[in-house]
Write a structure and sequence with these properties.
Layout: E1 2-8, E2 20-25, E3 31-39, E4 49-55, E5 69-73, E6 81-84, E7 88-89, E8 96-101, E9 104-109, E10 111-116, E11 119-124, E12 132-133
Antiparallel strand pairs: 1-4, 2-3, 2-5, 3-4, 6-11, 7-8, 8-9, 8-12, 10-11
């Protein structure tokens, strides 16, 4: 199946064949995903928008042709550990977080990525499962303090 959409010409710099497109279709309670298979070489003369053509895997024939869709082209993505912005200490020459490991806290330098809705992604050290970052009032404790992480209720 194919989705035909138009993108404002000012967004041309982020368009590329193969880019992911996330979209919602009226009448469905979930989102769908496709990939740009073609970008028109000509903008619409009236709207100055550029048509794109998105290939959609229609597994099981669930999507019905002819419906309206609304979505966005994923221009960038990243993987990494995301912590509350309150957990990142930026008062010194390098940013760091206080991490709980083996029953006590340790200071871990981090390279900041980008912030989203009150959280910050950091790129180093690599994400580690089972680790906790101290945030809020917990960020006031010093490295080496013994701690016990309680199970969530």
């Amino acid at each position: 199946m194919r989705l035909e959409a138009s993108v404002p010409s000012e967004d041309l710099s982020v368009l590329r064949v193969g880019a992911t497109v996330d979209f919602n279709v009226r009448g469905y309670e979930r989102s769908f995903q496709g990939r740009i298979e073609r970008i028109s070489p000509q903008a619409d003369a009236t709207t100055r928008q550029v048509p794109i053509y998105v290939a959609i895997p229609n597994v099981g024939g669930r999507l019905v042709a002819g419906l309206f869709a609304e979505g966005r082209v994923v221009s960038s993505s990243a993987a990494g550990l995301i912590v509350p912005i309150a957990a990142v200490n930026t008062t010194g020459p390098e940013a760091w977080v206080l991490r709980v490991a083996k029953g006590s806290t340790e200071r871990v330098p981090v390279t900041l990525g980008y912030g989203i809705r009150g959280a910050s992604k950091y790129r180093s050290p690599p994400a580690e499962r089972g680790r906790h970052a101290a945030a809020g009032s917990g960020s006031g404790i010093s490295p080496g303090t013994p701690v016990k992480v309680a199970a969530a209720r």
